Amino acid sequence: MDKKVRVRFAPSPTGGLHLGGVRTALFNYLFARKNNGTFVLRVEDTDQNRFVEGAEEYIVNCLNWCGITPDESPNNPGAYGPYRQSERKPSYRKFAEQLISDGYAYYAFDTTEDLDAKRKEIPNFQYGQATRMQMRNSLTLTISEVEELLAAKTPHVIRIKVPTDEIVHFNDLIRGDVSFETSLVDDKVLLKADGMPTYHLAVVVDDKAMEISHAFRGEEWLPSAPVHILLWKYLGWEADMPAWAHLPLILKPDGHGKLSKRDGDRLGFPVYAMSWTDPKTGDVTKGFKEMGFMPEAFINMLALLGWNDGTDEELFSLKELEEKFSIERISKAGAKFDFEKAKWYNHEWIKSQGAERLAASVKAELEKAGIEVEDDAFLSTVIDLIKDRCTLLPDFVAQSGYFFASPAEYDVNSVKPKWTVEKADFFKAFAGGLTLTDAVTAEAAFKALAEEKGFKPGELMLPFRIMLVGGKFGPGVFDIAVLLGVEETKARIVKAIAVFNS
User: What is its EC number (predicted)?
Assistant: First the structure.
């Protein structure tokens, strides 16, 4: 590539980070890594009405959890700062005024009441070529009137003057040639009455100042592209304009429309990377992290929503994604979100990890459930024994809790209908002579005693499992017994016999 690769993820600090936003950050990150470039986090906090306290820190925490930490950011500034738009405020008016001087923008003094009246008068009102000469702006007022209004600090915005009957073309790295008729584009506000820029002006000015080479963003921004391309041209920066790549939407599970938080609430799955607490209401929206997803699985799942490496392979580490990622393999079509598939990724990642990678997370889940873990080596052995049975990290509680405490309840209904005095005697005899050197030997002794007492081993396996575990689940019952040890296994047999006999 001719120029150094610099890409940016530019979220607004307004609330939870949607998985679509994380995917945009991920594709930026992967492209930067693949091309020895720089991944920038720029916080677009110019909309003060929507700014939410704590949201920026939350975004940073999400990216860190995912393992896609920016090279430059407000917390790790480089040579292109500041990295918050609110701290770049003085630069925007200068360029807005330059656009007015060059005839590409104008002051608009219309009040909220003026605009509301026009919306009532004209259905689907757009402030643009067809209506701008009916409004109160520097195109319809005299120079002296405009100067008087500005001198009196009359509230106003600055709007781009979109040309009439032109075609704006650009090459999208995903979609190929894209064109727009300017007659369908309205005169977007560039600078608001509070002096803050809108996204349209700020994104162009900041991308130029930060020497951004490639701009990855969601498909929903495509309608804004002609305004941005005109601004690059009008400001004289066309040669420095980044290459554009508009990413496909992440769709609802049924494929109809963009996935929203409401869909997650309705269907019972998260759409945020991490849990978000609304500072005003205190409402908590659960995230993938808190639901029990590993970051490796979350990133793996996101990468394959709209991208593949051209093979049937589905499991990729972040390092592998960095090596294999290419824009050419990004799909134009939207990608349907499938929560069951997301859980499949997590299950596969849990299965593939050693106990040392899982131990801290599993220990935290157990402690949240009130289960104390005193022996980390024992925990690691338990994890390796049961991880294949766990889809989400909280599953380790149900699947391993009985290793740390004797069952408080038993699935007695699965035992009692066929429970007999003879079975009770069998288990007393088995406990009395119990040795647990290894699972194979223990199972052989169990079967030999069953045969001696006139039982089929299959009749006794379920009661034995429920004695140790409390229910009909878990790994091999003799593996469980060996881990529990002789004394604990005996104690659980005795305790359960009393319950089954009652």
Answer: 6.1.1.17
Q: Which domain holds residue 435?
A: 406-502
3-state secondary structure string, 257-305? Answer: CECCHHHHHHHCCCCECCCEECCCCCCEECEHHHHCCCHHHHHHHHHCC
Does one domain contain both 93 and 207? Answer: yes
User: What single string gives the DSSP state of each residue in 97-126?
Assistant: HHHHHTTSEEEE---HHHHHHHHHHSTT--
Q: Which of 464, 459, 469, 470 is nearest to 493 (CA)?
A: 464
Q: Residue 412 has what DSSP assignment?
A: G
Per-residue confidence (pLDDT) for residue 2, from 0 to 100: 61
Cα–Cα distance for residue pair 265/260, rounded to 1 Å: 9
> Do 499 and 454 share a structural domain?
yes
> Which residues belong to the annotated binding site for ATP?
261
pLDDT, tens digit, for every residue of 421-476? 999 999 999 999 999 999 999 999 999 999 999 999 999 999 999 999 999 999 99
Nearest-angstrom CA–CA distance, 279 and 60: 17
pLDDT in tens, 307-359: 999 999 999 999 999 999 999 999 999 999 999 999 999 999 999 999 999 99
Binding-site positions read 261
Catalytic residue annotation: 261
Residue 175, CA distances (Å) to 86, 221, 328, 391, 397 in order: 33, 13, 10, 37, 47
Are 345 and 437 found together in one domain? no
